[in-house]
Amino acid sequence: MNDPMDYLAPVLKANSQLGDPGTDDYIDAEGLLMCGKCHTRRQMVIKVPAPNGQQREMTVYRQCDCRKAAAEAEAERKRKADEAEAFAKLLKELKGQSLMDERTAGHTFDNFQQTPDNARNLKLCRRYAEHFDEMLEKNQGLLMYGPVGTGKSFSAACIANHLLNAGISVIMTSFVKLLDAMQGSREDDQVLIDRMNKVKLLIIDDLGAERGSDYTLEKVYNIIDSRYRAKLPIILTTNLDLEQMKADDDIRYERIYDRIFELCYPMLYTGKSWRKTEANRRFKDMRAFLEGEDG
């Protein structure tokens, strides 16, 4: 009969690593090692089978209370560190696939300049981002419409960055870029659409800026309709007027807009053009600089 100790040898070898003595450790009245810090046993007696069918007693090491607590704390620290590393890797991957440029990557709710014109939209966008799980479940998107330069793209980017920083997959691009990618790709259009539908939120800027050919409008419809069929939300920005979109009787546009109105809650953007305001500020600064140099 094999000695059970042969099988226990690796276990006992690992167990011996718990036996490093502490400077304050001591032996109790039963001859077992005690921890000098928490005063709980660092040894225990177990019974193991013997070759003759009997049992024999062995003294093995165990974790005292303070060493056990320290080991659990270290394991928890390592778990959190591993989670943080994994999340950082995920965040890098998500931002890499988001197609956002350096300019839009810096747009956040923290640097959103609130005005009387955009205060309501800021509230709605922030609420949408903070309750995205519910928006995802309802397949609820947004249609941001209004004149050029009123903050539509900025708002959409704020939502995108909020979600990306929470580890939620987002792609933000434009119809012009998407259509160029489709025309320049060797892959079937559906392959690109399927790839976009792997993300939780798709944001497409500048609806209406693309050429209005039958080919182009069919692609636009397919992109939007695919989100509808996948039950995934989409955010669109456009300089088009909402009433004009509703009244358009061109069947090519009508079916696009009908699908958009079914998927997206409309948000009107008004006020002064941020682009014109910024351009005017830069002009004044430059004029003051140049005239100062002349003086």
Structure description:
With 295 residues, the protein is α/β, with parallel strands linked by helices. The chain has 2 domains: 4-68, no CATH class; 98-278, P-loop containing nucleotide triphosphate hydrolases (Rossmann fold, 3-Layer(aba) Sandwich). The protein is 54% helix and 15% strand. It has 12 helices and 9 strands. It has helices at residues 4-16, 65-97, 102-105, 119-130, 132-138, 152-165, 175-184, 189-196, 214-230, 242-247, 251-263, 274-294, and strands at residues 26-27, 33-34, 43-49, 55-61, 141-145, 170-174, 201-207, 234-238, 264-268. Strands 6-7-8-5-9 form a 5-stranded parallel beta sheet. The protein has a two-stranded antiparallel sheet with strand order 1-2. It has a two-stranded antiparallel sheet with strand order 3-4. Helix 9 (214-230) packs parallel to helix 11. The longest helix is centred in the N-terminal third of the chain and has 33 residues, at 65-97. It starts with a helix and ends with a helix. The model has no long low-confidence stretch (mean pLDDT 83).
